[in-house]
Design brief:
heterotrimer, A mainly alpha, B alpha/beta, C mainly alpha, A: mainly alpha, ABC transporter involved in vitamin B12 uptake, BtuC, 12 helices, 74% helix, 1% strand, globular, disordered N terminus, disordered C terminus, C: mainly alpha, two-stranded antiparallel ribbon
């Protein structure tokens, strides 16, 4: 009975994912270039946020350093494409694997830590790792490295722009990744993570290896972040240290908190908010006749205020999305 | 004159209503023993009286002043001192520092010094260990330290939570006799929460028996001790 | 040999700053069980306030106390306006345990944005209170300069003052009691909320001192103390996160260690070296080199 039900839910979820894909495809043909580019960015954030949702919402670990893991993925994708001439899809796979490997190493430390130690360690990573790229010439220093995923295939038509192409790739990647994460969370592993998070002692007594379970979560989450990094590099068409600032790590945590942390469907809300805030503050800054100072800092101000308010008053996500 | 008057008190512990519609009175200068099994709501009652727990409904007054839903530190400063369960000492601090805590906020530093001397006379073992960390004390010594610290605050109402918990019978006897002599020396009103019913009732004036958060009976302790039905049901022998 | 001693001297000077930041983090951790990532923000705001005083009076020694007092006030305000609410609203749910960390993170972002709004993002030079030209003995000039000596001396004095306050005064006793066992402190009549706010103020002033001491040797920008936050955290972890002495010693260990890596290995390896130290300490001796036996799962 339960199994049958689960099967039906699974089928319904799959249909929903396909439906979303079709809708996005149709919409992308009817809006202007800027919106399409923003759509691609939303897709990048959806991937990044779902990595935090998996890690924090399910496994109960915190990471303030996922921006750095995105950097690992971004640089890995670029290097594999530029140096080995890997096809785009393969460079994405390399990004996932490189970040996952990095995450596994980190996860060995992280699995034994929690709370402040994990937060501090990952913060250290976020602050320090991207700047390392400045010191190795193979990583291109300040200027970074170019990343070219190529022109859209001609079969898509003359009007099909580069941004549309980015949107398609990022959107498809986001859709596939969300589907995968959805399935992982519903699997034995997802249940183990939740059990280990809410009552470690009971979970351990029930035979769940807490440490291993946490390392696995960290590894998978890092891999997803790596994909997000590669996608980000694609939309920017390059990787630089400054593409992965501390603010990026904070932004995806903010997005995850806004998304409600435990709900995968919230990731799209979080991602839209992350893209909308700079847009809104830009408009606001122009309206105020603001200087460069205002334009540069208003998004950070809004984002931080939103983060504080949401964690103070809706730490488990807005009621709207709560099951 | 009425000392502690509790009327229709309702206190939650988590999702559970741990104290229900509880009313009793302890006259000034009396020693009242609150008796009940584990989970009867005794500790919740004390925590409500010392401000650590929010009171849902009802009232508690000490000398006609309401004491519910006040800050614990303000209640301490007005003479209502709670020695929380077991060995309420700070193990990271020395014995001397533990005792000094109650004197920090007191204006009358001469009286603090006097009170400290009295406590050390009462419990000479503490005097020998002043500079040791409280971590190194035995269970009984910790209990003495906790009570000693309470006394330095010069309480008028002392709330004691299971001072006998986990102690050897000989030490229990020592602690109880100390409590008994204290309240005469300092004219204290004492609310003593205990599972160790017999020892508590032997030094108490009145006994208050509660079960599952509700009052079973209040009466002079000697009559409770001699009531065979109560003994069987609540005192466990 | 000379190079060796020079490296140690420079390490002590750098480590002093790390120690001060670690001290700020430890003070808050002990009293509130939160690693306050906003500490870097509070320190940068205090340093900018000091900068305003310098640009008006051209007097570092006036800016110093102003920054320290601002740091204390900012720390107290953060506790009153944010942390008290946070503690009172202690939540259930998956994020409950990490909500305070996220809140301090949000505060860091908020303060940086506010600083950027007021002073802009450009790098600013900060007046040196004393010269940064190394001491000269006969014909040799060593890297260790009067500014480094000043940093070491002030840090030592600050640590001494904190040690005296904590060990010798009633306020210190109240701070320690409230940190170890808030409930028992409360039941002894101590105003724990007020005491904790004072702890936050002390932490804020320690962070401000770190900021205003290190900035003249570097530059001032809204994010110029981010790396210091990380170093301070590493130093605090080496010291066990609970101990004030540990914070100071952890700072010195990290400072001297990094100075050696920079001098003898490569100047580009400072960050990886610090990060490796952090990971190594956490894996090998999770309670810190000087820490207590408490677990790190708090």
């Amino acid at each position: 009975m339960l199994r049958k039900n689960g099967g039906r839910n699974q089928l319904r979820a799959n249909l929903i994912f396909i439906a979303i894909g079709i809708v996005l495809f149709l919409v992308s043909n009817r809006v202007d270039e800027l919106r399409v580019y923003q759509g691609a960015t939303v897709a990048v954030y959806v991937v990044a946020i779902s990595s935090i949702i998996l890690l924090t919402g399910y496994s109960g670990q915190i990471s303030l350093g996922h921006g750095a893991l995105m950097a690992v993925g971004g640089y890995a994708a670029v290097l594999s494409r530029n140096d080995w001439h890997a096809p785009v899809w393969l460079s994405f796979v390399v990004a996932v694997l490189a970040a996952a490997l990095f995450g596994a190493i980190l996860g060995v430390a992280a699995g034994r830590l929690s709370g402040p130690y994990l937060a501090g360690t990952t913060l250290a990573l976020a602050v320090g790792l991207p700047s390392l790229a400045n010191q190795f010439s193979v990583l291109g220093g300040e200027q970074g490295l170019n990343y070219d995923v190529g022109q859209p295939p001609l079969s898509l038509g003359q009007d099909f722009t580069q941004y549309h192409w980015y949107f398609w790739i990022a959107g498809l990647a986001a859709l596939v990744m969300t589907w995968l994460v959805h399935n992982v969370l519903g699997s034995r592993y997802g249940r183990n993570w939740r059990a280990a998070r809410s009552n470690p002692t009971a979970a351990a007594l029930a035979g769940i290896h807490i440490g291993r379970s946490k390392i696995l979560a960290f590894t998978i989450s890092a891999g997803i972040a790596g994909l997000a990094g590669a996608l980000l590099a694609m939309t920017l068409s390059l990787v630089t240290p400054s593409a992965f600032p501390l603010a990026l790590s904070f932004a995806i945590v903010t997005g995850a908190v806004l998304a409600g942390v435990t709900l995968l469907t919230g990731s799209i809300v979080g991602a839209v908010v992350l893209v909308a805030i700079p847009e809104l503050t830009d408009a606001l800054a122009t309206h105020l006749g603001g200087s460069e100072r205002v334009t540069a800092n208003l998004p950070g101000l809004m984002m931080s205020a939103l983060l504080i308010v949401s964690v103070l008053f809706f730490p488990n996500g807005p009621r709207l999305f709560r099951r | 004159m009425s000392g502690l008057v509790i009327t229709n008190l309702e206190v939650n512990h988590g999702a559970i209503r741990a104290v229900r519609n509880l009313s009793f009175t302890v006259e000034s200068g009396q020693l009242a023993a609150v008796i009940g099994a584990n989970g009867a709501g005794k500790t919740t009652l004390l925590r409500a009286l010392s401000g650590l727990k929010h009171v849902h409904a009802g009232n508690a007054t000490w000398h006609e002043t309401s004491i519910i839903n006040k800050k614990p530190e303000n209640l301490v400063r007005s003479g209502i001192v709670h020695v929380s369960d077991g060995k309420a000492v700070i193990p990271e601090l020395s014995v001397k520092e533990n005792l000094a805590l109650s004197g920090i906020w007191r204006k009358d530093k001469k009286d603090v010094a006097r009170a400290t001397t009295e406590v050390l006379d009462l419990f000479p073992i503490l005097a020998a260990r002043l500079s040791q960390s409280a971590d190194s004390l035995s269970g009984g010594e910790r209990q003495m330290l906790a009570i000693g610290r309470a006394l330095i605050a010069r309480p008028s109402l002392l709330l004691l939570d299971e001072p006998s918990l986990g102690l050897a019978p000989l030490i229990i006897e020592q602690i109880f006799s100390a409590i008994n002599s204290l309240r005469h020396t300092y004219d204290l009103t004492v609310l003593l929460v205990e599972q160790n019913a017999t020892s508590a009732l032997q030094i108490a004036d009145i006994g208050i028996i509660i079960n599952l958060g509700e009052l079973v009976t209040v009466g002079p302790s000697h009559s409770l001790l001699n009531d065979p039905a109560l003994r069987a049901a609540y005192l466990g022998y | 040999m000379e190079r060796f001693i020079n490296t140690i001297l420079i390490g002590i000077s750098g480590g002093s700053i790390y120690g001060l930041m670690a001290l700020a983090l430890v003070l808050v951790w002990r009293s509130t069980r939160v690693v306050n990532f906003a500490q870097a923000g509070q320190a940068i705001l205090s340093t900018y306030i000091g900068y305003v005083v310098i640009s008006h009076t051209n007097n570092y020694w006036l800016a110093f106390p102003v920054a320290v007092i601002s740091g204390a006030l900012i720390g107290a305000l953060v506790d009153i306006l944010l942390i008290r609410i946070m503690v009172k609203r202690a939540h259930q749910g998956p994020v409950a345990a990490i909500a305070p960390v996220i809140a301090t993170l949000g505060l860091l972002g908020l303060i940086r944005a506010v600083v950027g709004l007021i002073w802009g993002g450009d790098l600013r030079q900060f007046k040196l209170p004393v010269t940064n030209h190394g001491f000269t003995f006969g014909h040799t000039t060593i890297p260790f300069a009067p500014i480094n000596l000043l940093i070491v001396v002030i840090t030592f004095l600050v640590m001494l003052i904190f040690a005296l306050i904590f060990q010798r005064t009633n306020l210190g006793l109240a701070l320690r009691a409230s940190a170890y066992q808030p409930e028992i402190a409360r039941l002894s009549g101590i105003r724990v909320d007020l005491t904790r706010t004072i702890g936050w103020a002390f932490a804020g002033s320690a962070g401000a001192i770190a900021g205003i001491l290190v900035t003249p040797t570097n530059y001032l920008a809204p994010n110029s103390l981010d790396l210091l936050l990380v170093s301070g955290f590493v130093a605090a972890v080496i010291g066990g996160l609970e101990s004030l002495v540990g914070a100071a010693v952890g700072g010195l260990i990290l400072g001297i260690g990094l100075a050696f890596v920079l001098e003898y290995v490569s100047s580009s390896l400072a960050f990886p070296a610090a990060f490796m130290v952090l990971i190594a300490v956490l894996l090998v001796k999770p309670a810190g080199l000087i820490g207590s036996k408490r677990s790190r799962n708090a």
